[in-house]
Amino acid sequence: MKLYYAPGSCSLAVHIALKETGQVCELAKVDVFTKAMDDGGDYRTVNPRGALPALALDEGGVLTEVAVLLQYVADKAGNVLIPAAGTLERYRVLEWLNHLATELHKSFSVLFNPVATDDFKQFVQQKLIRHFAEIDAVVGREEWLANGAYSVADIYAFVISNWAGMVGIDLSEFVALEAFRSRIAARPAVVAALQVEGLA
After folding, report:
1. Which of 4, 46, 156, 183 has the most neighbouring CB atoms within 10 Å?
2. Which Pfam families does the UniProt entry name for this protein (predicted)?
3. Domains plus CATH for the chain?
């Protein structure tokens, strides 16, 4: 497999999942602005949408969209980071993956957009703070987001939460969330992925 990534972007979640499951994967770094790859190629030949991440599969073909890739990687490893298909526990993880993708991940794209107005950015920041407050409440009651077990949903939430400081969102008031983030950051697979991407 080959993971097309940019350091610290949402592709980091897939990178961490690969490390957690011990799967060997080649890495191809992509410039998020120019879409140029390290080998000089144009990333849009891999994913015409230009969005990261993308995963080139051993059997041929390419998969995209972080929530899909997280499920694929977890399933390929034998449900290590996700419950078996068809179970309620699986749907609880999918519930979180979809919430994170649509309500948090996409909201951050507004805050990174230079043409978005300050008023709109402030509105989005307040929305994100409410979502982080919900996560804080959940991980204050349970160690992890779903089913009491570490999963791809926790990895995705960790990566998204790392962007907060870049856009002026202070998470320090969320004590349980900060403890959750620290637990994940200390995991050997997470440390390894961060080091490879030059983030630790």
Report:
1. 156
2. GST_C (PF00043), GST_N_2 (PF13409)
3. 2-80+189-196 (3.40.30.10), 88-187 (1.20.1050.10)
